[in-house]
Design a protein that fits this description.
CATH topology of the largest domain: Rossmann fold
Distance between the termini: 16 Å
CATH superfamily of the largest domain: Aspartate/ornithine carbamoyltransferase
Number of helices: 11
Shape: globular
Bound molecules: phosphoric acid mono(formamide)ester
CATH class of the largest domain: Alpha Beta
Oligomer: single chain
Structural class: alpha/beta
Order of helices and strands: HEHEHEHEHEHEEHEHHEHH
Strand order of the largest sheet: 7-6-5-8-9
Strand content: 5-15%
Mean pLDDT: 96
Number of domains: 2
């Protein structure tokens, strides 16, 4: 049977092209399953999964939980805000206590970069990184590439621009790794203060002119400004940000071609993207969310196949 080359899903950085092909092939199967009248398979009936969310989430948390339930796994959910973390319990103590309840897979979102890697070195369970600070969000990048493949036939050779707050975005870094691995060209566009200095080391070009970036690309993946991760001001005002980097219908209509619009959510409507663009036929934002369930089913299923029963 085909297997992933990794024991955990900690970041796209650790995957190879065969892994991505295998995840997408498996996701194709599960996408067909979740469109059946009975959307459930018994594949993970003997597997228990803990979803540990130390940061807020809507899409990722619900999507993982639904994916696990569609695979018939037993699922427990933990939100740091209502837990004994508030009483000073450490991450390793929290997770080891949860694992002593015979948990096989941990899905974790955490505010600290490297939290998933740290956990994988200290506990005996499969770890899936659901976002570690400003570092990686691998399942988001996988579902983004899967959605581009679905819309345009393939990712190879496509031109993708990631627009917005690149500096604080785990979605941007995971997307850069995933898209380049599949042979896409990637540019980033945003205020220079929100572009990390290391970006050229990744083989990514910077375009600070939004119109030129959109004229170049096949797909624009639009990110929100992550005010919650900012301790200083990176641009003068939200109004100025929107004037320079906000995507609206007029800009798109003047391109002379139809590009694909993506956004990982949550959207700040009227800031980085207007509602008429987010809700237009060029947008695949809700397809991304739908595909997230199939892709997370695939990742979870493939890692679970490595568990010795
Ligand atoms: N895209 C994404 O990670 O959304 P949530 O923060 O709602 O999970």
């Amino acid at each position: 049977m085909d297997q992933l080359s990794v024991e955990h899903l900690l970041g796209i950085k650790y995957l190879n092209t065969n892994d991505i092909d295998l995840i997408f092939k498996t996701a194709d199967h599960f996408k067909e399953v979740i469109n059946r009248p009975i959307k459930k398979v018994p594949s993970l009936r003997d597997i228990t999964i803990a979803n540990l969310f130390f940061e807020n989430s809507t899409r990722t948390k619900l999507s993982f939980e639904l994916a696990q339930k569609r695979l018939s796994a037993d699922v427990i959910n933990f939100s740091a805000g209502q837990s004994s973390v508030k009483k000073g319990e450490t991450l390793i103590d929290t997770v080891n206590n949860i694992l002593s309840m015979k948990v096989d897979i941990v899905v974790m979102r955490h505010g600290s970069v490297g939290a998933g890697v740290f956990l994988s070195n200290h506990v005996d369970a499969k770890i899936i990184n659901a976002g570690d600070g400003t570092h990686e969000h691998p399942t988001q990048a996988l579902l983004d590439s899967y959605s581009i493949r679905e819309k345009l036939g393939s990712v190879k050779g496509k031109k993708i621009v990631i627009v917005g707050d690149i500096l604080h975005s785990r979605v941007a870094l995971s997307n850069i790794y995933a898209l380049q691995l599949q042979g896409a060209q990637v540019k980033v566009c945003g205020p220079t203060t929100l572009i990390p200095k290391y970006i050229s080391n990744l083989g990514v070009e910077v375009e600070t002119n939004l119109k030129k970036a959109l004229e170049w690309c096949d797909v624009a993946n639009v990110l929100r400004v992550q005010h919650e991760r900012m301790d200083i001001k990176y641009f003068p005002s939200t109004r100025e940000y929107t004037q320079l980097f906000g995507i609206n219908k007029e800009i798109l209509d003047n391109l002379g071609k139809k590009i694909v619009i993506m956004h990982p959510g949550p959207i700040n409507r009227g800031v980085e993207i207007t509602s008429d663009v987010a809700d237009s036929d060029q947008s695949i934002i809700l397809n991304q969310v739908e595909n997230g369930v199939a892709v997370r089913m695939a990742v979870t299923y493939l890692l679970a196949q490595q568990i010795k029963r």
